[in-house]
Amino acid sequence: MASVLKRTSLKIGMIPADGIGKEVLPAAQRVLEALGSAIPKPEFIPLLAGWGEFNKNGKALPEETIRVLKEECDSAMFGSVSSPSHKVAGYSSPIVALRKHLDLYANVRPVSSVPIPGQQQSFKCDMVIVRENTECLYIKQETISTNPDGSKIALATRQITSRASERIGKMAFEIALRRGQERLAAPKGKESWWKGEPKVTIVHKSNVLSVTDGLFRESVRSIKEGTDRYAGIKMEEQLVDSMVYRMFREPEIFDVAVAPNLYGDIISDGAAALVGSLGLVPSINAGDNFVMGEPVHGSAPDIEGKNIANPIASIRSAALVLSSLGYVEPAAKINAAVDAVLMEGTYLTPDLGGKSTTTEVTDAVLKRL
User: Fold this and answer.
1) Which residues form the Isopropylmalate dehydrogenase-like domain (predicted)?
2) Residue 188 and residue 211: Cα distance in Å, rounded?
């Protein structure tokens, strides 16, 4: 991930795309603006993408959006996209395309529980899911043909490479290493509940997919085995079905989990249930030279325009972007403000059982800042 500390300004591409993305991204922008001199003056560049843009102009991801991101921006924020569940000629997901164009090979999703009044939480969860972002079934190479008897057969190509698997493995071990250092450096009274050594769990299904998942497993294992840098990090494995079961039964046993694209997508969305709502879970799409924040939730057309979407995931995603760029303290201030609002419980959106609006929750976070 990039580190750009010496700047006079911070140029952030803003891609609200569809649905509630147009409501939660402005909330994140307000919070970033409120940081004042703690970060370089942010400049927000509005950019187009999404299903709505496709229906207007025939392209879900305009070339100009790609150009501006590559040539003018330090980072970006993406809102949400509405993709049709059936095949539409000429359409492909702009978020998937952006990951490829910008080589954002890692999707990093922290899932951390915060005690919220009225929410039953019988466990502690503080894990990071690191999802490979560029291949697996998401390369979207599918064919359909007709058998002699008239029945249809659909085939999808699943691609796993050692290069992609090794670099996502390295990202996971680096995150585990950093989390371990942060725990040791935590001030008194703010120590982590995690008392053991940092741990990376490799998620796969190589007992069935011995070639593709076998390559992923061995490639990630080689990262730890090839250096002493990660000697203090424990390495474990979980079959993906077992991972899902154990994640819901005992999420406190997981620290950093690394998975191929499809598995990572499923378990990270499922993990949101552990903390109460998809509206709380942030993510970043990260490469070696660029980072793009993206709340985990979808476009939620059923609540679009009602000003009740939860802005927390978007606000936390902005904090993740700052942290990835090297602005760790301002990011920590944002997260502390969010935690305070959630723990107080006065301002909660309907997904958390409250009656507050997007605007009211954002205002509450700003007040805490």
Assistant:
1) 11-365
2) 48
How confident is the model over 212-262, as pLDDT tens digits? 999 999 999 999 999 999 999 999 999 999 999 999 999 999 999 999 999
Beta strands in the chain (DSSP E): 9-17, 41-46, 75-80, 106-112, 126-132, 142-146, 152-156, 199-204, 234-239, 256-259, 284-286, 291-293
Amino acid at 167: R
pLDDT for 54-76, tens place per residue? 999 999 999 999 999 999 999 99
Sign of CA dihedral 44, 45, 46, 47: negative
CA pair distance 324, 14, nearest whole angstrom:
17
Contact of 101 with 66, CB cutoff 8 Å = yes
CATH architecture of 1-107+281-369: 3-Layer(aba) Sandwich (3.40)
Rounded Cα distance, 361 and 26, in Å: 13
DSSP letters of 139-171?
A: G--EEEEE-TTS-EEEEE--B--HHHHHHHHHH
Q: What is the CATH number of domain 122-275?
A: 3.40.718.10
Which parts of 15-101 fold into alpha helices (H)?
21-34, 51-57, 63-72, 94-101
For residue 363, the SS3 value is: helix
Check: CB of residue 156 under 8 Å from CB of residue 142: yes
Q: How many whole angstroms separate alpha carbon 47 and alpha carbon 234?
A: 42
What sign has the CA pseudo-torsion 254, 178, 327, 133? negative
The SS3 of residue 279 is helix
Q: Are 296 and 281 in contact (CB under 8 A)?
A: yes
Range(s) within the chain of domains with CATH label 3.40.718.10: 1-107+281-369, 122-275
